[in-house]
Amino acid sequence: MSDTHIDIKRINEILNDTITTIETNREEIFDIVEHARNECNNIKEQLQKVKEKAEKVIYEVDVLEVEEKSSRIRLASVSKNFKNYDEEDIRSSYEKTNELRVLLTLKREEEKSLIEKRADLEIRLKESVKVLEKAEKINSQVGIAMECLKGNLNDILATVGDLSKRQLLGIKIIEAQEEERQRLARDIHDGPAQSMASIVIKTELCERLLATDKEKTKEELVELKNIARHNLKDIRKIIYDLRPMSLDDLGLVPTLERYIYNFQNETGILVELKVIGNIKHMGSTFEIAIFRIVQEALNNIEKHSNATNVNIIVEASLEKLNLMVSDNGDGFDLELYSNDGDVRTGGFGLISMKERAELINGKLEIKSSPGMGTNIYLSIPLIKEEDYNE
User: 47 vs 39, 60, 100, 123, CA distance in Å?
Assistant: First the structure.
């Protein structure tokens, strides 16, 4: 007993020394994180300024191209009908055309330089974001370590397994939320936001062109319409990713069919959906949970399985709805995962599916082995949503 007490005392001393060392150096970690964050913000500001300048120069180049073209047409007309113009008119037309040509050349060089600078800053920003993410991850892990180490050793020994799992799961949930927010921000920035900026520029250009070059105006309007159509498509995709509205309008099966159709086109993976029985409307809580489970399963298949074929079966009986998703991919060793999924080895997707199943009183079972593909089974009791909410 005394030996155990001595061991615990010694371990506590080691823990205290460790805490002191971490606390001493944590300020440096904060400095690193802050420096990385400031670097990212500085590059973002530079990039924003360059983008704004580039947009302005691109617009100026477009306007100069129109003016230079009009000037060349004017010069050609003057040269052809030189008898109708005096020497001053001819000289003025030539000088204006030459001046516009030189100015256009300089602006094009400036445009090229800004585009190159913008590309360089975008690369630097990506690298800086990676550094910041790593620094924040280290800082987060140090914080978790401090919380664990500051507790009483006996409490730590008793609860470290459960605490570690909860903390790691919490980190994964936060990371997943932040990744989703970053993905949405990136999708909106790279898609609709850029398109809207182009629409504004094109609209201003069309206003200037209306009085000078109607043919060019028509071309710009056609391009403007294509940009708007593409922009609308991007926005609809983002909305669909947030929540497929067809679930409320059409129901579960048509929504799955549409998602599977798009999934096949994007990934090249053949997916066969088979529906057995009459799938009635079960309420939004149930249908969104089932849809997200299928979505998560297909995402995992795309990312990890190397599968070429997927079979999905949805079967409805009087009391239950059964779902099976099976693939011919690489499979994995289930022993690497705990009963709740091991977040440390990337099993957060499995946890997400199981939690969604539990929310609707369902049971999710996963069967897999290396080289034998993966089978996911979901069984849900069919009850009314109002009964479930009670």
Answer: 12, 20, 29, 10
